[in-house]
Amino acid sequence: MKFYSRVLLYFAGGLFFVALLAPQWPPAALLLLPLVYLHGEDLLVWLYSRFAPIEPVRVRHPDDERCAYDPRRGLYHWLWRVEPNRSLFGVESAEAVHEFYNKLSLQRGEWLTFVVIGDEKFIRFTSRRFDPARVSQVEAVLQEFYVATREGAWVGWGRPVDRRVYATAFFWLFYSAFAGPWALAVVLPVWLWVVRRFARGYLEVPLMVRFTHRSVAESWPASRQVLELLSGPDARVYANMPRWAVAVADRPPLEVVKKFQRIYEGRDTGKRLVRLGELAPVLERISQHNERPVLLYPFGTADVHTQNVSHDLLAQAELWRLRDGVKALTGDLMRFPIFYGGQLLGRGRYVTLAYDRFGRPVAVPIDSLPNAHGVIIGPSGMGKSWTVGSWLNALVRSGVVITVVDPHGDFRRWAKLNGAVVVEVPRQLPADFAEVLAASLDFQRVARAYGFEVAGAESARSAVERVASLVGAAPQYIQWDGSSHTVFVLRSIREAYDVAAFFTAALMLYLFRKFKAPEEEPPEMLRRIIVIDEARLVGDPRNPASGELVRALLELVQGGRKEGYAAWFIIQLETQLERDLLRSASLVLVLGGTSRAIRGAAEILGLSQSDLAYLTSALTPYEASLGGRPYATGVLLLAPREIKYQVKIPLDPELKPRRK
Amino acid sequence: MRRGEAGYLELRRELKRKMEELGKAARGVRVLPDPKPPGLKIGVLPAEAWPRALRVRPRNPEAWDLCVNFLGDLDCYHKAVRLWGNKDAYALVLRAVMFGADVKAVVDALSRGDFQKARELVYRGRAPAQQIDELVAGRR
Fold it and tell me: What stretch of H or E contains A70?
């Protein structure tokens, strides 16, 4: 039976018994004393929680500023801010949950609570003992699964409980009409003492940290099939809540064993067989899936029907009292997204690039990514250029200078909206194009692959002009210092494959060389993003310089962050870019499409089945725009950890011409 | 006696003269204002009570609950709603509530843009290094 139901039952039974006995034999009223002393506070907490959420007052521990001590329950609480270092959801998290729980090896009188408030995730470790060694042990385990930062003592803040709670004393006046004046004389002083203790020991808490729902179930259905079926949907419901928490405590398996033995050793009756059948799913999970019995304490701000989580303001008190858990097994932790949604905690600017499937913004610390390059993979028509254009809008607002190498002219509209300079290559080239390229050893090698010997600015210039002349263009040199947003459009030469490949390569090497930061001044911030649309031109084996180019690119992008720029490559298939570039990119976006188009990328990037299912169900941006705002669907991966989001990226309608 | 009844004007004139003598009305005023009807008092509801009286809901219930229901300070609400969209500021207000700091002072400091002061209040002068890293580097 649940704890608070038991308390209510004790009180009802005790009052009834004394009301019957005390009129005949007044000393029977003394029986109420232990009841009021032991459970008076529990009853008051239950009663008060009908009207307002309360929690017990905590104080800072004198020996540890970061430990909150709850004198009411004798519990010590430590708090960490955490971000999962992997991104697992639903049944995918089974292995991690199992490993995490077993490594923690919670003892009796220890609880671990995962708390989510808005964007922030916390883990609270609660113990009956003040044992710093154990806390460091727990912290070490947390560090394996989360990026954990120790926070201050969660002592709470609020206002004192309403003094009208003293009015409950009038109940005893009413009760004495049945049980006699002796009962009043005996119970009233103790009751007033209990109420005073309650009034001093509890606080009403503000909405910001309030949990309003909890599970009223005694245990959850145990079958593994049901668990696997429900873990995803349940986790989804929690991920949608603004605040939720789940506490877990170990439950000795002895209880299950005893129950089993009692049934097994009885006579071979039909009833026994039925009860064995009831226990079978539990035993199966314990024996076959190596799960352990636990007590779970789910709290939230919305109903979860499959877990009997419903509105009950007692949730707030229970979050701190931890008296009323649900009997479950470790696998049931999969029903909570405790390993979902790791953010990168960086310094510098955050830019919201997408929204996850629960509509929460995914902000990326652009100054703190481990290396500079990103890859956007997506089949034709799924909105690659549109997505990048929309991202670039956000980046422009953050003060990043954008340079785009655009073979198809997709970014002309973007350039118009953002006031960017459009340079038509090869008819227009920057004035220092040849000088900068001549200083690049990489360009010398690339030019050699095309049959040019480059030894200085003049020879570089003549090589460039010679290639341009193949498409009948004579370069006109313009002043360009790279301080403004620029789009280099190669649309006029897209038919001449080799010329386009040459100029794409030359432009890349020119840009990387030109924006190299001075040695003595390594920049702290990302100042520029160079976007290479249709980057397949770089790694294509038909390109005579592809080997040289890829090698040069690998060198350049690995050190790009230190130079203050980032390079983003847009490709259609994973085969169009060197695998090392793909694997080491710190930001990868895979846009939806057919499974045959994305399976290769999924394999290299380690996407799961659910990611594939999500990607293959993606709408095209045009289809999405029929329902209102256009968006692109994809999976966003961020380095250095396994951070992965299934996202929707709102697209800027201004970037596309109207369809007729 | 009501306006328009016989003797009303004479009575008001007499009243005006007496009040001028007593110094309770300025000399040269043409007429005295009518007395207020008995039983009706003019009062102004405190601004905190307006939403309930007008039966409207605050746009930001979290900030309203914190500032008005708990602190009884509407000015704090005005400051808080401006802070709510700022991730760093919200994180500090949340921590102020969690760690039992002076919430009103933290909201004040944040609304002045004084993040350092707010951090000191929240963490009692000792903010974790990572927090400082996150908050200092221009994410405001």
Answer: strand A64-70
A52 in contact with B at a CB cutoff of 8 Å?
A: no
**Interchain pair A155, B100: CB under 8 A:** yes
The pLDDT, as a whole number, for residue A358 is 82
0.90 surpassed by pTM = no
Amino acid A538: pLDDT: 75
Mean of pLDDT over chain A? 88
Helices A441-449 and A546-558 pack at an angle, to 10 degrees, of 160
How confident is the model over A625-641, as a mean pLDDT? 87
- B-chain CB neighbours of A152 within 8 Å are 95, 98-99, 122-124
Tell me the domain boundaries of chain A. Answer: 3-48+160-204, 56-158+206-251+292-335, 350-655
Cα separation, B77 vs A368, in Å, equals 34
Out of A158, A206, A347, the one facing B137 most closely (by C-beta) is: A347
B132: left (phi over 0), alpha (psi -120 to 50) or beta: alpha
One-letter amino acid at A322 equals L
The partner residue sitting opposite B90, judged by closest CB among A118, A155, A156, is: A118
Query: Which pLDDT does position A648 carry in this prediction?
Result: 93
**DSSP summary character for residue A121:** E
Start-to-end CA distance of chain B, whole Å, equals 67
**Cα separation, A585 vs A229, whole angstroms:** 34
Contact across the interface for A65 and B66, Cβ inside 8 Å: no
Residue A161 banded pLDDT, cuts 50, 70, 90: very high
Instruction: Give the residues across from A640 on adjacent strands.
Output: none
Which residue out of B64, B73, B93, B97 would a mutagenesis test of the A interface target, given it has the greatest number of A Cβ atoms within 10 Å? B97
Task: Count Cβ atoms below 10 Å from residue A554 Cβ, excluding itself.
Answer: 15
Check residue B140 and give its pLDDT.
Answer: 42
- Token pair in block for residue A34: 């232990």
Spell out the residues 6+ positions from residue A91 whose beta carbon is closer than 8 angstroms to its own.
A228, A231, A232, A334
A350-655 classified as CATH 3.40.50.300? yes
pLDDT at B69: 93
Report the distance separating Cα A472 and Cα A363, nearest Å.
Answer: 46
pLDDT at residue A42 tops 90 = yes
Could you tell me if A600 lies within 8 Å of chain B, comparing CB atoms? no
Give the torsion sign (CA, A493, A494, A499, A501). positive
**Angle, to 10 degrees, between the axis of helix B87-98 and the axis of helix B129-136?**
150
Amino acid A167: pLDDT: 96
In contact, A601 and A377? CB cutoff 8 Å: yes
pLDDT at position A200: 95
pLDDT value of residue A422: 92
- DSSP letter at B114 equals -
Q: What pLDDT does residue A520 have?
A: 60
pLDDT cut 90: percent of chain A above it: 50
Contact indicator for A84, A338 with CB cutoff of 8 Å: yes
**Is A207 close to B130, i.e. CB distance below 8 A?**
no
Shortest CA gap A534–chain B (Å): 33
Where is A443: in which H helix or E strand? helix A441-449
> What tokens appear for A343 in the block?
């953010």
| Contact (Cβ atoms closer than 8 angstroms) between residue A405 and residue A488 | yes
Q: Is A258 exposed, middle or buried (0-12, 13-18, 19+ CB in 10 A)?
A: exposed
CB B100 within 8 A of CB B94: no
What is the biggest distance separating any 2 CA atoms in chain B, rounded to whole angstroms? Answer: 85
Closest residue in A to B96 (Cα–Cα): A157
Query: CA B69 to CA A4: how far, in whole Å?
Result: 29
Q: Looking at A120-129, A131-140, A378-387, which range is the least confident one?
A: A378-387
CA distance A395 to A566: 12
